[in-house]
Amino acid sequence: MSKGESNPSSSEFEREEVPSNAQKGWKSFLGMYAGEHAAGTEFMIGPLFLTAGVSAFDLIIGLLLGNFIAVLSWRYLTARIGVKHRLTLYYHLEKISGKKLVVFYNLANGVLFCFLAGAMITVSATAVGVPFNMEMPQLTDTLPNGPTWIIIVILVGAVISIIAARGYDTVSKAANWMSPVIVLAFILAGVVALGQLEVTSFKDFWNIWADGSDPFPGQTKFTFWHVVIWSWFCNAAMHIGMSDLSVFRFAKSSSVGWTTAAGMYVGHYMAWIAAALLYAVYLKSPEAQTFLSEGQAPPVAPGPLAFNALGVFGIVAVILAGWTTANPTIYRAGLAFQAIMPKLSTFRVTIVAGSIATLAGLFPAFAMKLLGFVALYGFILAPIGAIIVFEHFFSERFGIKAFYAEKSGTQFNRAVFLAWLISFVVFYFVSLKFDVFLSFLTLPAWLSCGVLFLVFSKFYHRK
């Protein structure tokens, strides 16, 4: 198939460059990023920062810095490479790694994205369950807690999966419609929570977190650098891991990468803080105090937290928030599976991805342990993005062939495999041996993988 030639059976251009007539302006991306990042994860992450005992300075200034570095990563790495080649991550990687090797990556990528989408289905389900007086999952829960929970998760997952399966245009349109409602909900929730906390000055606001506290039982203590590095790398798979090549291949120019700031500062800043305020209100309740007095962590259930502040509108906002995160995540997972099974339509593989995500959503642990899970999936997937970045910027200078697998006919590029394997094993061992938080090791693993790829490629290409 020639460059720019459209596949008559699909408008997603899974194995070709996106043609000029399908490229989109900044408005499409602004809505998608604002919707995706002012969304379901925010209702979980804000409260989880409180369970980690962060201080006011660590949270407010740490998030400001970490999110800024994340925007730079999208703008100058992901968007730049996405606009240059206009390929999905999976097809781009196949040209470098070979079909046999990329199958394993696509499988891991797709499954991990399904788990993340499952956590967002869990978030929406906590809102749907409020009118039914459903028992909410606890921070320590792993298994479904009853038939009502199972039925609600399955119904929510089915709706989200069908929307995602209709393709990028539908995902983008859904985000554009929903994101203003969700952003408004976060703003109102924050204002209401400030009133419930009797905040009348900036000093009162600062004292909500003050100098921090001990983490809740079973939670990791977060410092300033935990907040900075985690907020930078919570989306590591998407920016330095290059997953959003699949999104930015539709952009008219790389400057569209700046639209990610809408997601970072509306979502990962304002929304995280607003959600933390909702949880701060709940922590003053007799129910939460009972949990704490018994040495247990009070539950983090976004549905009841939002309902307490905004009533029915809060329930609607949480449902939509989970939706707008799960939608593009399932879409990405579907593209990963489609790269493994190219004969199946994007619609069918996305339905498969949605089904896996719904199954994952039945298990609350993915949502309740979101800080740790997000750190893990970024650590696993981000170093593969270094392969693409280092080849793009250094292949000519280092004397190695770009898209080596495609040009040589190699099905399994050993340089890619060894670079990732060594980086993963070494730094994961460091994390286990010395009890280092995984997000602190994501950048070292990423740099190691890129450098080793160049070294091994030089050797194998010469050979």
From TrEMBL:
Domain of life: Bacteria
Keyword entries, A-Z: Membrane, Transmembrane, Transmembrane helix
Transmembrane segments: 56-77, 103-128, 148-165, 177-197, 222-241, 262-283, 303-326, 347-367, 373-394, 415-431, 437-456
Annotated region (Disordered), positions in chain: 1-20
Organism expressing this protein natively: Splendidivirga corallicola
Name of this protein: Purine-cytosine permease
Entries under PANTHER family matching the protein: CYTOSINE PERMEASE (PTHR30569:SF0), CYTOSINE TRANSPORTER CODB (PTHR30569)
InterPro entries tied to this protein: CodB
Regions of compositional bias (Polar residues) in chain numbering: 1-11
Organism ancestry: Bacteria, Pseudomonadati, Bacteroidota, Cytophagia, Cytophagales
